């Protein structure tokens, strides 16, 4: 059955892939995005875009009233850990007040379900083995704190208003359309620098282990969460699921794969290219040494498993960045 789905942050990296997955499955999509990091070019022209800052309550309510969604996929966020440290008030305004505005608008429109982009990458703290969902939350940054608070608000709204609610706790997401501005998109940052003829810089020793999950796989998890049965996502309660691979890769190994993937893309295009080895800069304060998530429960609840491995994902991402450079 076709649904009307409001995707906040839908012109951004992950949100636009969610919109694509929903449209391919035959659903109607409306988008809220302030275009601070997203782009209209990421969306088909037929998708209604409401250029709205989620901190502005009246504008959020107006967009919801205009589109009248059945369900909500909340991807809009302040997503920079370092900015949250510098500007905790701004982080809280977007990630907490903005979420409350979206939830109140969803309730006003009698939406039946809300899927929320949370973060396994910041909730669990240091983890040298894949952390399951019952791992105690231990966020150390304002960004992580607001994601945890967001889940608590979502749990309250589910119980108070009978919503079906799911929080998807992402590992480190990468892929085509990722914005290279900010520390979150390390794959995009390295690709952009190499294609500009610049040298990449690795923070500290680079032995920071992360779980990298492909953006298309994350979009599929959102589609499954939005369309799952009420038995899988019961009304009146919050279900939280990790979305990752459980496989750790440090930044040194990741950078080598990125250079290798980019050389391969160029070779397929009949071009010879080489890229210099990276430099090492100072370590970034507060960076976790290791963080991995166990996503096996998503397989049980949603039937979701990652399908795109890191080598293939980097190759696809590199090809997209090369195509974007050629088109510009």
Describe the 3D structure.
It is a single chain. This protein has 328 residues and is of the alpha/beta class. It has 2 domains: 4-175 and 213-245 and 293-307, Rossmann fold, CATH 3.40.50.720; 186-208 and 248-291 and 316-327, UDP-galactose 4-epimerase, domain 1. The chain is 43% helix and 18% strand. It is built from 11 helices and 13 strands. It has helices at 13-24, 57-67, 81-86, 88-108, 120-123, 142-161, 186-195, 215-227, 251-268, 296-302, 310-327, and strands at residues 4-8, 28-33, 49-51, 71-74, 113-119, 164-170, 172-174, 201-203, 209-214, 237-243, 248-250, 279-281, 290-291. The strands form 3 sheets. The protein has a 7-stranded parallel β-sheet, sandwiched between helices. Strands 7, 9, 11 and 13 form a 4-stranded mixed β-sheet that branches. Helix 9 (251-268) packs across helix 11 (310-327). The protein is globular and about 55 Å long. The model has no long low-confidence stretch (mean pLDDT 94).
Lateral arrangement of strands in the main beta sheet: 3-2-1-4-5-6-10
Give helix % range. 40-55%
Mean pLDDT across the residues is 94
- Overall outline: globular
State the separation between the terminal residues, measured CA to CA: 40 Å
Any idea what the CATH architecture of the largest domain is? 3-Layer(aba) Sandwich
Main pleated sheet: 7 strands, parallel
Q: Tally the helices.
A: 11
Tell me the β content: 15-25%
Order of helices and strands: EHEEHEHHEHHEEHEEHEEHEEHH
């Amino acid at each position: 059955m076709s649904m009307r789905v409001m995707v906040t942050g839908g012109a951004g990296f992950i949100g636009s892939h969610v919109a694509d997955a929903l449209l391919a499955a035959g659903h109607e999509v409306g988008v809220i995005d302030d275009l601070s990091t997203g782009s209209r070019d990421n969306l088909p022209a037929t998708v209604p875009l409401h250029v709205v800052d989620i901190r502005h309550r009246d504008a959020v309510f107006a967009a919801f009233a205009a589109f009248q969604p059945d369900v909500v996929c909340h991807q809009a966020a302040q997503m920079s850990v370092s900015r949250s440290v510098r500007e905790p008030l701004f982080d809280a305004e977007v990630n907490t007040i903005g979420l409350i505005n979206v939830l109140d608008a969803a309730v006003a429109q009698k939406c039946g379900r809300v899927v929320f982009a949370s973060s396994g990458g910041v909730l669990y703290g240091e983890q040298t083995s894949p952390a399951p969902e019952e791992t105690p939350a231990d966020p150390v940054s304002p960004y992580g704190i607001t994601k945890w608070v967001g889940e608590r608000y979502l749990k309250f709204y589910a119980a108070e208003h009978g919503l079906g609610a799911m929080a998807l706790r992402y590992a480190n997401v990468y892929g085509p359309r990722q914005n290279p501005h900010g520390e979150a998109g390390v794959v995009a940052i390295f690709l952009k620098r190499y294609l500009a003829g610049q040298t990449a810089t690795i923070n500290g020793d680079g032995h920071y282990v992360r779980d990298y999950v492909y953006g298309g796989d994350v979009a599929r998890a959102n589609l499954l969460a939005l369309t799952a049965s009420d038995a899988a996502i019961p009304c009146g309660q919050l279900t939280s699921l990790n979305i990752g691979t459980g496989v750790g890769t440090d930044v040194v190994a990741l950078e080598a794969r990125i250079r290798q993937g980019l050389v391969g893309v160029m070779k397929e295009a009949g071009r010879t290219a080489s890229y210099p080895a990276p430099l090492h800069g100072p370590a970034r304060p507060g960076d976790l040494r290791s963080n991995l998530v166990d996503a096996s429960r998503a397989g049980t609840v949603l039937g979701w498993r990652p399908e795109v491995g890191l080598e293939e994902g980097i190759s696809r991402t590199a090809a997209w960045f090369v195509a974007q450079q050629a088109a510009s």
